[in-house]
Design goal:
The complex is a heterodimer. By secondary structure, chain A is mostly helical. In chain A, 77% of the residues lie in helices and 0% in strands. Chain A has helices spanning 5-20, 29-48, 52-73, 78-92, 101-125, 128-153. By secondary structure, chain B is an alpha+beta fold. Chain B has one domain (3-16, 29-372): Aminoglycoside phosphotransferase (APH), C-terminal lobe (Aminoglycoside 3'-phosphotransferase, Chain: A, domain 2, Alpha-Beta Complex). Chain B has eleven helices and eleven strands. The chains are: A mainly alpha, B alpha+beta.
């Protein structure tokens, strides 16, 4: 690919940094701030671009894992049972043959929406074992997921991870 | 009205306004000549004979459009600040409410003088308020360049000068006698002991829904945990709502606090809500593994000093609830409210809002850490 995506982004950064920013008047504080943020954003995107597809695939894999575990472990009354079945169906509904980003995102969101419904259902008629399993599974697996997310967004400079 | 939808009347209006604004066209940043003309027209009516000059944009901040200007009346030339809402903001609030509180707090804590308000956007393109400029800075001039208030580093000298003032002003806010000096437009959550917590929770939960927050398991779990653990409020006080380093001005040479800022999230509620906000890790610093809230106090030091100065007893279980609430709320602000404003192009700082959204995993991780502690810290 000529020019590559990275080469194109690099040229945009250079134009913003060396041509546009120096020509903004001192009183144009908002424009200066936003140009600097745009440069920062693009630089981070350049660093993440190649890894982004794998990151989203892993997000989906983690969603499938937590959805599968919760559907197996959580028990309770009619609402909880219906929610676990819906969650299992959302996991089964992921089209693993379609590697597109849109499919990855839609599959992941369907599972996470079903997890949310399960959390609500368990609060209504989950049994003690089911409540404990829900809490333990979410806390354990979200701990792992949030560490990955924090690392991914660390280049923004907010996180001392 | 069902219990789930119950909240302070002003917050219901804010939510209705936010939901209704979805179909409006994109918003763009106001230009200096436009703001100059609007101000000139406004003061031609409000202060006949006065003129406006020197309009310039104020940098920093993630919420309002802000402009300094000079108002000339006779021989007097006075500096003022115009704060104007964008169409959608990362925090949706009410200008009238902030105006009322700024006027009420005069004599209690240092605040900017609230001069004029256009709460409905009758004259300005959006709701706006004008206040007198106060000298001071929100961070040391030597501080590294960051979005104001997120982890501001004060250093030993300023820390020593500011920490007592920071605590005393917080105690003074909580000591404001709202029964003797009522705040117009501020509803009092005194129907039952849990109403203060319930109103806050309901508002932010509905804001999350309106802005189509994309759920994740820890957010769903936290929301349910909060719903199941609403604490009783033992004493209703005025809360600031966003009390932290970055939201006050101080003289850099003397370290004197000259004004407390950003009162838009203030309400009558539980003082623990303010304490937990102060104690949020994102607003503090970590030095050699030691966390300092707002770079001023270590956690236990802050709690015990507050108890000593205020005479109140901090309920650790209630504080834990508001610790969870604060992290959940921060997640909603950056991941739902800010992103909704950016996606709809209803804000003047989309690029900043998407930048700030990168903090969302930190708050998700806070929630994991806090909920692992059980029901009590």
């Amino acid at each position: 690919m000529i020019p590559s995506v990275d080469e194109r982004l690099a040229s945009i950064v250079r134009a913003l940094t060396e041509v546009i920013l120096p020509h903004l008047p001192p009183e144009a504080s908002l424009a200066q701030e936003q140009a600097q943020l745009a440069i920062g954003h693009i630089q981070i995107i350049r660093g993440q671009l190649d890894a982004a597809p794998a990151y989203e695939q892993e997000e989906l894999a983690d969603a499938i894992a937590i959805g599968t575990d919760l559907a197996k472990a959580v028990s309770g009354g009619a609402k909880t049972t219906a929610a676990t079945k819906a969650l299992a169906a959302s996991v089964a509904g992921v089209d693993s043959a379609d590697p597109s980003a849109a499919n990855l995102r839609a599959g992941r969101q369907a599972i996470l929406d079903a997890v949310e419904q399960l959390v609500r259902a368990v609060s209504v008629d989950g049994d003690a074992t089911g409540k404990a399993a829900l809490r333990a599974t979410i806390l354990d697996q979200e701990y792992t997921r949030t560490q990955k997310d924090r690392k991914w967004f660390a280049p923004f400079g907010f996180d001392s991870l | 009205m069902t219990a789930q939808l119950e909240m302070e009347a002003v917050n219901r209006r804010i939510l209705d306004r936010r939901a209704a604004s979805r179909g409006l066209p994109p918003y763009r940043a106001a230009l200096i000549p436009e703001v100059t003309e609007i101000l000139a027209d406004y003061f031609a009516r409000e202060v006949p004979g006065a003129t406006v000059s020197g309009v310039r944009r104020v940098g920093g901040g993630a919420s309002k459009e802000q402009f300094f200007f000079t108002l000339h009346r006779g021989d007097a030339a006075e500096p003022y600040l115009l704060r104007m809402d964008p169409r959608l903001a990362i925090t949706e609030t009410d200008r009238e409410r902030e105006f009322v509180l700024l006027q009420a707090m005069v004599g209690t804590v240092p605040v900017p003088e609230a001069a004029w308000v256009d709460a409905t956007g009758a004259h300005f393109p959006q709701p706006a308020a004008i206040m007198r400029v106060v000298k001071g800075v929100t961070k040391p001039s030597s501080a590294s360049i960051k979005v104001t208030g997120l982890g501001t580093w004060l250093g030993d000298d300023l820390r020593a000068k500011l920490r007592d003032q920071f605590m005393d002003h917080l105690v003074a806010i909580h000591g404001y006698d709202w029964r003797a000096k009522p705040l117009p437009g501020f509803d009092v959550p005194d129907a039952d002991a849990k109403q203060a917590a319930r109103w806050s929770f309901n508002f932010w939960r509905e804001l999350w829904r309106i802005d189509n927050g994309q759920t994740r398991p820890i957010i769903a779990l936290a929301e349910q945990w909060l719903a199941d653990h609403l604490p009783d409020c033992a004493e209703l006080v005025v809360t600031h709502g966003d009390y932290r380093t970055g939201n006050y001005l101080f003289e850099e040479d003397t370290g004197t606090v000259t004004a407390l800022l950003d009162w838009e999230l203030a309400r009558i509620g539980d003082f623990h809500e303010d304490l937990s906000w102060v104690l949020m890790q994102v607003f503090g610093t970590i030095e050699n593994g030691t966390f300092r809230a707002s770079d001023l106090f270590e956690r236990e030091e802050f709690i015990t000093t507050y108890e000593q100065r205020s005479g109140r007893k901090v309920n650790r279980e209630t504080l834990h609830f508001y610790d969870v609430f604060a992290a959940w709320k921060c997640y909603i602000i950056v991941a739902a409210n800010g992103m909704a404003a950016a996606r709809s192009q209803h804000n003047h700082q989309d690029v900043l809002l998407t930048f700030l959204a990168a903090t969302a995993p930190m708050f998700a991780d806070d929630l994991v850490r806090l909920l692992r502690q059980g029901d009590q810290a």
